[in-house]
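Hi C.,

You asked whether I'd gotten around to modeling the 485-residue construct. I have! Everything is below, sequence then structure, no commentary in between.
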Amino acid sequence: MNLIRRSILLKLWLLMVLLVIIVMGITSILQAAKLKNLYYSQQADQLIKEGENIAESLAGADLAACQPLIIMTGMMNTNVMVIDREGTVKECAGMGMMRHGVGAKISMAGHHGMPWRTADLERVWAGKSISSRGYSSFLDSEVLSVAVPVKRDQEVAGAVVLSASLAPIQGRLVNLQKITLYTGLGGVLLATLLSLLFSRSLSRPLLEMNKIARALANGDYSQRVGVKSEDEVGALAFSLNYLGKELQEKVAALEHLNQTRRDFVTNVSHELRTPLTIMQGFTEALLDGMAESDADRQRYLENILAEILRLRRLVAELLDLRRMELGQMAMCKKEISFINLAGQIMEKFQPVGAQKGVEIKGLFPKQLPAVFADPDRLEQVLVNLLDNALRAAPKGGWVKLSVRESEGRLQVSVSDNGPGIPLAEQSLIWERFHKTDRSRSRTGSGTGLGLAIAKQIVEAHGGNIGVVSEPGNGSTFTFTIPLMC
């Protein structure tokens, strides 16, 4: 019993087998009753027809004038009596009929299994044929009896009474019932086998989904259900697979977030430790009197101030990045001419480029629609991209700032002919503190947050930013933002 309660396969199988047995049992009972009534009705119709033939032959003759036909009917396992309205037997044939003899008077009710009431006999004398089934103690079996009126001059002169044993019919019915029983048993066996196969086909995907659900509960989010049907089971399998996929993606995102946080803590610690170590070294040198001249002391203090400014910039950029990620960074947007803004920024970098031996080129259109943006934030993006390009470009190299309109958007590109960025790292450069070999050529003043902040600023303006780079052939950073119509 516990096994049945715990197994959906057995439940489905037993339910279908029980349903088949009930349906076939009810069908067999109804079929047997229907066949029995059909056979009895056909036998009654046949006896009434024989009685009508005898009654028709007696219509214009004496009631005892049809002895050959009566005898022939009696030879067909049918008992025949011809009686008048007073119950006098005019002719008889068949088993047991000679006991009374011609001319004897009998009581119709109860004679040889003829269970007719007086009201039934009145129907015969009224010109109606009647039939009835009953047990005959004389024949020791159930018999079917009919009474057909004999009419003469529009009046009923007597009746032809026929009775036949139902034993042959009952024998045929028993044989039919046996056939039905054997057929039903075969059907039950076949239904049992088919229901078992169907139950297994229905329960197999459920068992598989249970296995997958347990795997998901244990943290294995790569498991998937292999059910492809389009029914409710298939819909459940699809939902379970979708759940597994979502869990896998969410867990992967959480793991990535945790790793990012760990990397962030490590990188921040490193970025803080480096300037603190430098400041500690110069401060201890001053305290120990290692600075022998005013020039040395001035140089030590300038280095300490530079590291303090670097720490301040790092903290400010961290706060900015955090506010942007939370959507809390206020943007002072207004209508501006980006060509003028880009020209001013490029002029600021010309001395830096000349000092390093890098040519800075600008490619601007004569006219360009205004943009609705925060000029300080866009300047922050351009400064970061130009600063990175100058650090990457070799001595004697070049940096190019291109501005143009593309499909109703402002497109800004900053290119250099530096060493380029490895393909595997191009999707990682937007992460906080990520450094490539290209960026290791920096003097150490960078914080590693510039591109992450630039990406947040561009996206806050409804734009996007990307990079195209091939190792050895330089890099091109491009961002787009909407133009004002």
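If it helps when you're writing up: The longest helix spans residues 232-287.

Thanks,
B.
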